[in-house]
């Protein structure tokens, strides 16, 4: 796909998804100003639903690539859609060499990439420890890390549900209302000084803190 066409397709998908989730899922976002306007950036987010990639994508004011399980690319319509949006195929619960190199290539070109370092969707709505594939990536590329928190997607469409259950703005709010919080960048000069265990622990806590901010942001009932 020609780059100009790809950007216009991304813009159309972005605006359509934003409008749909804002109206029919009560989506709220904050922290857009924390997103670097250019240059490489690695966004780390918690993961509970298939809705997470598009939610982060429309919350960050940049063209973004994201990682997706390799098996999804084989699905008839979904595979074509995520390919057209510059998704990066990775192995289930880990990096393949091809996925790692494709991610590095995008970051070296100055792109922003979304990564879900838990490696899979949450089974119970709680964050699980980050997989070591994150360390492999950060050994090869030094770029700002942006912690991102997502709230509401587990109750809207988790791995145990066959179809999503939305909370539109014209209905009473509940825990299905969606929210995304983007934290401040963590520069390489900061995380480069951390040990392996500190790196995994502090990045986990940074994402968890933004998840907490996203939960505060969710549309709630008025007393």
CATH class: Alpha Beta
Order of helices and strands: HEEHEHEHEHEHEHH
Shape call:
globular
Helix tally? 8
Major sheet attributes: 7 strands, mixed
The average pLDDT is 93
Number of strands: 7
The CATH homologous superfamily name equals: Glycerol-3-phosphate (1)-acyltransferase
Number of domains: 1
C-alpha end-to-end distance = 51 Å
Radius of gyration: 17 Å
Task: Note the beta-strand portion.
Answer: 5-15%
Low-confidence stretches: none
CATH topology: Glycerol-3-phosphate (1)-acyltransferase
- The order of strands across the largest sheet is 1-7-6-2-5-3-4
CATH architecture: 3-Layer(aba) Sandwich
Short summary of the structure?
This protein is α/β, with parallel strands linked by helices and 223 residues long. The protein has eight helices and seven strands, in the order αββαβαβαβαβαβαα.
Overview of this protein structure:
This protein is an alpha/beta fold. The chain has one domain (3-217): Glycerol-3-phosphate (1)-acyltransferase, CATH 3.40.1130. The chain contains 8 helices and 7 strands, in the order αββαβαβαβαβαβαα. It has helices spanning 3-24, 52-59, 76-84, 97-108, 133-140, 153-157, 188-191, 196-217; strands spanning 28-30, 41-45, 64-69, 88-90, 112-115, 145-151, 179-182. It has a 7-stranded mixed beta sheet, with helices on both faces. It is globular.
């Amino acid at each position: 796909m020609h780059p100009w066409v790809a950007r216009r397709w991304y813009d159309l998908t972005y605006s359509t998804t934003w409008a749909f989730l804002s109206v029919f899922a009560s989506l709220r976002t904050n922290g857009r100003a924390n997103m670097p306007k250019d240059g490489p950036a690695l966004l780390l987010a918690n993961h509970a639903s298939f809705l997470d990639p598009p939610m982060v994508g429309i919350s960050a004011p940049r063209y973004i690539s994201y990682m997706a399980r390799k098996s999804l690319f084989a699905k008839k319509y979904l595979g074509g859609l995520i390919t057209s949006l510059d998704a990066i195929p990775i192995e289930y619960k880990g990096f393949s060499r091809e996925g790692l190199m494709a991610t590095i290539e995008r970051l070296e070109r100055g792109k922003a990439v979304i990564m879900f370092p838990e490696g899979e969707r949450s089974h119970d709505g709680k964050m699980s420890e980050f997989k070591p594939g994150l360390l492999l990536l950060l050994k090869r590329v030094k770029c700002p890390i942006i912690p991102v928190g997502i709230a509401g997607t587990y109750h809207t469409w988790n791995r145990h549900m066959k179809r999503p259950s939305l909370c539109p703005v014209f209905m009473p709010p509940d825990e299905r209302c969606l929210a995304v919080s983007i934290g401040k960048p963590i520069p390489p000069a900061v995380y480069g000084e951390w040990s392996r265990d500190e790196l995994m622990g502090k990045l986990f806590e940074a994402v968890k803190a933004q998840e907490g901010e996203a939960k505060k942001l969710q549309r709630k009932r008025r007393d």
